[in-house]
Amino acid sequence: MSAPTFDDLIRTAARALAGAGIEDARQNAMLLMLAAFGDTRAALISSGPSPVPQGVQDAFGAALARRLAREPLQHILGHTGFYGLEILTDARALIPRPDSEVVVEQALALLPADRPAQLADLGTGSGCLLAAILSRRPLATGTGIEASPAAASLARENFGQLGLTARARVFEGRWSGWTGWGEVDLLISNPPYIPSRDIDTLEPEVRRFDPMDALDGGADGLDAYREIIGLGRTRLKPGVPLVFEIGHDQRASVQALLAAAGYSELGHRPDLGGNDRCVWGLAPDPSH
Ligand code: GLN
User: Quick one: CA torsion of 220, 223, 224, 225, rounded to 10 degrees?
Assistant: First the structure.
């Protein structure tokens, strides 16, 4: 039997992926083949009717098996796009989501481009939020605070490969153990915010492959917000913006926590899908 063509393998794989309940099956099949092929999309398309070399068949077969087991495409490919940057992705940290880009937008709106600033990102994970902001604010520096050693190592790799090592540090430890709160001019966080009882309802790609510590926000999903808002109340300089990513139904509850702790000028904005995704407030003066 002659070797299958690229078109054959992509078509068969797309059918198998769709049958496994995976959305965008054709696009997934194409991207997995592109990675196995190791050349440009244009070259792959023009190779469509050609037989697939055995080495490419093997690599594609292995990648397809992983995707059929619902491993996220981003883990298999090892990278994903976020705010125009190429971010390394694997099981060490939450995969960057397009929804989170609104947090970057809001942080940039609060950060003048023409002066230095110090940022902190609580639970930085892959480092995507901090990297995206720093890439647009060349005078700014930042610290990603990360309790997971695995995630911290991924953040360091990302800052390194993006040329940000001189401006982006990683503090490996808990938020409460970080002593830099009083120096920052802007604090951001995409903390774990899924209520524990909802974890089972998430897609397998999320539930089985994103680190649980990056998802589980406790009984009502708000544990991390309470901790950060409480720490920020006494440790941030008064007036420093605290910008959060939130779950689509958490605007009122997170804003209520901010208001109760004395934060002012609360705001919010939706993600590209129209869901509430970002809230912020300015740190209070705890002596008042
Ligand atoms: N947005 C992620 C999801 O719903 C959750 C991320 C988080 O908890 N910070 O899959």
Answer: 80
pTM value is 0.95
The verdict on the CB of residue 215 being under 6 Å from ligand 1 is yes
Q: How many CB atoms lie within 10 A of CB 88?
A: 20
pLDDT per residue as tens, the chain (288 positions): 678 999 999 999 999 999 999 999 999 999 999 999 999 999 999 999 999 999 999 999 999 999 999 999 999 999 999 999 999 999 999 999 999 999 999 999 999 999 999 999 999 999 999 999 999 999 999 999 999 999 999 999 999 999 999 999 999 999 999 999 999 999 999 999 999 999 999 999 999 999 999 999 999 999 999 999 999 999 999 999 999 999 999 999 999 999 999 999 999 999 989 999 999 999 999 777
Cα(87) to ligand 1 centroid in Å equals 17
Backbone angles phi, psi at 127, to 5 degrees: 90, 10
The response to whether residue 190 sits with its C-beta less than 6 Å from ligand 1 reads yes
Secondary structure letter of residue 51 according to DSSP: B
Q: Cα(192)–Cα(39) distance, rounded to whole angstroms? A: 37
